[in-house]
From TrEMBL:
It comes from Halogeometricum limi. Signal peptide: none annotated. The keyword S-adenosyl-L-methionine does not apply. GO terms for molecular function: oxidoreductase activity. This is Four-step phytoene desaturase. It comes from the Archaea. Pathway: Carotenoid biosynthesis.
Length: 500
């Protein structure tokens, strides 16, 4: 278990946390456990942030994150409060971890059995089985060192990186270059490169703009495994909320914040309903830009509109939530459908924003594992297509894209869903912006590009408004449910350090 800094200096203080995503929930737990009086205000009708749930006509969908990766991070989080994940939900290891349909007609499964995966790699490229082992050894080393020295430890200045202990442990880590450069050193076959890079979608990056350090995700994928938590990711939210309530956190849902004013020791946080909450500190898990530009007085903002316009945002997404009659035998719990050349899709996200004509996308069918998410005789399925943040999102465009995606699924997976859909909802750029106050409708936050990693991300503390702190996917360590849980710890630690 990672060692958490002494948070006792926060005992007896009062804190308002704005936003009930994983970052806000995590921060609230650490602060309450330290003896602070914590009130969390959530804009929407349910907690979990982007891990909202859609329940209708006997179907239950995880609206956002659906992969349970890095189980060690969840074990560590619950362990900090003398609990375990199994106190709140059970895990099922998926087999296969996921299926990939390539659009040239090829299909491959990645499974818990490393020997079978090794054989799969060898079948595509002579010598790739041995390179697979080499790659995973490097990935595991990067994971172990990276998590200890660069994820659970917040390094906010260049001098932090110049520390001898850091430099010693960083030797041999893939700290420079892109994921594309790194993967090409091991594998020449484009399909093997894609298999090693698909997780970049969850980091909000592309192979040519994501730091090579993130090859550590292959250790997460192949060695640690892919799981399904009881109740889906919403069940994980329920577990963390239960911990927070046991620690004394007070929750207010349907409480969108309209204004944050004051100073350390004398903050006033106002909601759109006219309620006022007084506290010594405020922590925002809301979108960082929204917090600064919409909730703070102008003279208390660290960044202006030009700064936010110059950032690279992780993709938004076009999502279809589908209740379908019958089974979908060609699909697994997690299924990826990939063009054999996905460069064009990434270009439409980061270089020349447009709706991709030949999309790479993800299908999730939790009813393969969990019979409570759909009525008997039906399948629960959602489709996620990563698209550029800020795209024009109109009903006409959604309808055109719906038809394109359903045609593509039928052509490349063999599952024609069109005449079997009994429930359908879409979610896209405008919905991310409206529901989550998300800048440009990003689905994830600030992308993990080479220029937006580690100390190059916005800080956990406000440099203009002492006592105001930030947590979640815009801060370190970054995007993804495990990273946001860790962000909550880093925020609490920085608060305690500054309170001493």
């Amino acid at each position: 278990m990672n060692s958490v800094s002494d948070l006792s200096s926060l005992a007896g203080s009062s804190v308002v946390v704005v936003g009930g995503g994983f970052g806000g929930l995590s921060t609230a737990c650490y602060l309450a456990d330290a003896g602070a009086d914590v009130t969390l205000l959530e804009k929407n009708e349910q907690l979990g942030g982007r891990a909202s749930r859609l329940e209708r006509d006997g179907f239950r969908f995880d609206m956002g994150p659906s992969w349970y990766l890095m189980p060690d991070v969840f074990e560590d989080f619950f362990g900090q409060f003398d609990r375990t994940p199994s106190d709140y939900y059970e895990l099922t290891r998926l087999d296969p971890h996921y299926r990939i349909f390539f659009k040239d007609g090829d299909r491959v499964d990645m499974v818990p059995d490393l020997e079978r995966n090794r054989e799969t790699f060898e079948s595509y490229e002579p010598g790739a089985g041995e390179k697979f082992d080499d790659y995973l050894r490097k990935s595991e080393k990067n994971y172990e060192i990276g998590m200890e020295h660069f994820v659970y430890t917040d390094r906010t200045t260049l001098s932090d990186f110049a520390d001898w202990n850091v430099m010693k442990n960083a030797r041999g880590l893939s700290l420079v270059g892109s994921m594309q450069d790194h993967v090409e050193r091991y594998f020449q076959h484009p399909k093997l490169q894609q298999i090693m890079q698909y997780t970049l979608v969850f980091l909000g990056g592309a192979p040519n703009n994501t730091p090579a350090l993130y090859n550590l995700m292959s250790h997460v994928d192949f060695n640690m495994g892919v799981y399904y938590p009881e109740g889906g990711l919403g069940g994980v939210v329920d577990g963390i909320v239960a911990v927070a309530e046991e620690l004394g956190v007070e929750f207010h849902v349907d409480s969108p914040v309209s204004e944050i004013r004051g100073r350390e020791g004398a903050f006033v946080t106002r909601t759109e309903g006219g309620s006022e909450f007084y506290s010594d500190y405020v922590v925002s898990d809301a979108d960082y830009r929204h917090t600064e530009m919409e909730l703070l007085p102008e003279h208390k903002r660290q960044y202006d509109e030009n700064y936010w316009d110059s950032r690279t945002y992780a993709p938004s997404a076009y999502l279809l939530y589908l209740g379908v009659e019958g089974d979908v035998p060609s699909l697994e719990h997690h299924t990826l459908v990939l063009p054999t050349d996905w460069d064009d899709h990434f270009e439409t996200i980061f270089d020349d924003p447009a709706w991709p004509g030949d999309p790479a996308y993800y299908l999730c069918v939790p009813s393969k594992t969990d019979d409570t998410v759909a009525p008997e005789g039906h399948s629960n399925l959602f489709v996620l297509v990563p698209i550029a943040a800020g795209l024009e999102d109109t009903p006409e465009q959604r309808e055109r894209y719906r038809n394109l995606v359903l045609d593509d699924i039928a052509e490349h997976t063999g599952e024609d869903l069109r005449d079997r859909i009994v429930l359908e909802e879409s979610f896209c750029v405008n919905d991310f912006a409206d529901r989550y106050n998300s800048t440009q409708g990003t689905a994830l936050g600030l992308a993990h590009t080479l220029r937006q990693t580690a100390l190059l991300r916005p800080p956990h503390h406000s440099e203009k408004m002492p006592g105001l702190y930030f947590t979640g996917s815009f801060t370190t360590p970054g995007i993804g449910v495990p990273m946001c849980l860790i962000s909550g710890q880093l925020t609490a630690e920085e608060m305690a350090e500054r309170a001493d």
